Amino acid sequence: MEVVSSSHSCLAFHQTPTSARRFLGTGVGPRHTKLTRPRKSAVLCVGRASNPGDSGKLHVSRSFDVSDVDAALQGISKKAGQIEKVAIPGLPEGPDSSQISTGLWEWRPKLTVYYEKSGTKNSKAPAVLFLPGFGVGTFHFEKQLMDLGRDYKVWTMDFLGQGMSLPCEDPAPKAMAGEKDEESYWGFGQDSQPWADELVYSVDLWRDQVQHFIEEVIGEPVYIVGNSLGGFVALYLAASSPHLVKGVTLLNATPFWGFLPNPARSPRLSKIFPWAGTFPLPSVVRKLTETVWQKISDPRSIQKILRQVYADHSTNVDKVFSRIIETTEHPAAAASFASIMFAPMGQISFQEALSR
């Protein structure tokens, strides 16, 4: 297995993603469904197709265009022992695009994964899986799918608890009528639903999610391209399931994830901490989450963050900004964020994964 790492700002990447498991389908594409604020009580939920002959797959597609970008690369010059860093423009649109289709995969009860794919007609071509960073999703790799789908089979997905892979039901609903109001966040009740008893949005969960997605949806070993958090998950999976990964490309990969001890690796130490990202959220965590979430989900805060992560401030990030805002408006977003922040570390570290 090959590992390629890049720590440069990938400006070209940021313009704007069947087996025993079930596929869910509907006539409405989920990426066209706007998620609204909790007070509007509108949640993305997609049901199974009712037609007996339907394969269960979601066939929603759109056409995009990408043209040759060789001209954009001409500004890169190599010198002895030195590579000049230049800003590469975003992939332009053109007539030779590859079609993108969207899908939903029910991995576990109530845990449905949103994904996008392109170039699946290239049956003999290698399969490439893009994994996004924290707080974004498939939309971050939209132009990569348009371009690479012409020659390869390309996939991308939203991690559970993020993007459009947030739950369609409240994992810990408020029981009393007086507790409920139009501004209620999901996951703030006293008891969790049976399907969410052991749920925690951890790096271990995401590794397992990607592993089963490769096995059950893609159906063959893949090359993985991981950005930030996606890079950590990509390397983690490659170290634990090398038979599924042909190679890894790391884009600004985060070298750590989580702060609390992993219960499998440090069972005694993990028992010291009373809570580690499960549902329901403890009362003190609920109060803290409400305060923090109001700040970080503010559009002005998101704009400031985007300015910091894009080296070229002239880059048009309107679409990225709007998609992030949509996610923050989901009623499950705040509790999911808390679960992610307090989830334990993985069973192996980034350095250990690199050494395998």
Automatic annotation (TrEMBL):
GO terms for biological process: chlorophyll catabolic process. GO terms for cellular component: chloroplast. Signal peptide: none annotated. Residues 128-279 form the AB hydrolase-1 domain. InterPro entries: AB_hydrolase_1 (IPR000073), AB_hydrolase_fold (IPR029058), PPH_chloroplastic (IPR044211). GO terms for molecular function: pheophytinase activity. It holds the Pfam family Abhydrolase_6. This is AB hydrolase-1 domain-containing protein.
